[in-house]
Amino acid sequence: MTLSDNDSPVTWHADGAVLEIMLNRPPANALGRALISGLNAGLDAADALPAKVIVVSSALPGFFAAGADIKHMASVDAELFAAYGDAVRAALERLANHPALSVAAVDGLALGGGLELAMACSLRIAGSSARLGLPEVKLGLIPGAGGTQRLPRLVGRGRALDIMLTGREVDAEEALRIGLVDRLVPAGTAVDAARELARELRTCSLPAQRAVVRTVDAAYDRPLAEGLRYEAEQVNEVFERGEAAEGIRAFLAKRAPEFV
Fold this sequence. Notes:
The chain is of the alpha/beta class. The protein is built from 11 helices and 10 strands.
């Protein structure tokens, strides 16, 4: 079911509870105002479904998203630059905090804001031709849409500094090795692989999956003992108020669970 205007820089379509948001702003999916507005509209569609899984992909060969809209940045003053940054950050935070899980399908370049968009997703699949980086220092800037915060959480402080201080591009194999992406597939197949993963994720309990994400994220900012207490709270929560009853019944009956 198509839900969007095909002439938009962002289109989206639903397959059951899986919604795919596709970036399509030639030549490189720069994160300009129109693309950010389209991303928000796609997330509105995910809210309306409601979606259990969101796939973020690109219609442009060779590009996931090449970063911020440099031409726009060159034409604005400090106040408008700040407003532009706020708009980008708000859209990416909305994606990162969305009730649905999300999968980025990265084939080609994911640079600057494009990589920050991918890192805002729950998981990342890369084609073997993908190249990822945060080159903002080459413009006299720093990553400003979550890059300085999410990259260290994925790859560690030292590797994050290496990538950001040099502005270098990371190839797909290195990205997999250091944890920047979660799965590596042949070039040109990342979108199909992301759709397949979305269908797999769709079969599991979303309340349980959300609890997994919350609990894993808690490991980054809590002492171990506190994290273990939080884990116990979360497992009790999903047992009492989630879909554990159906999952357990289905297991004992040797049938597939019927999660909402």
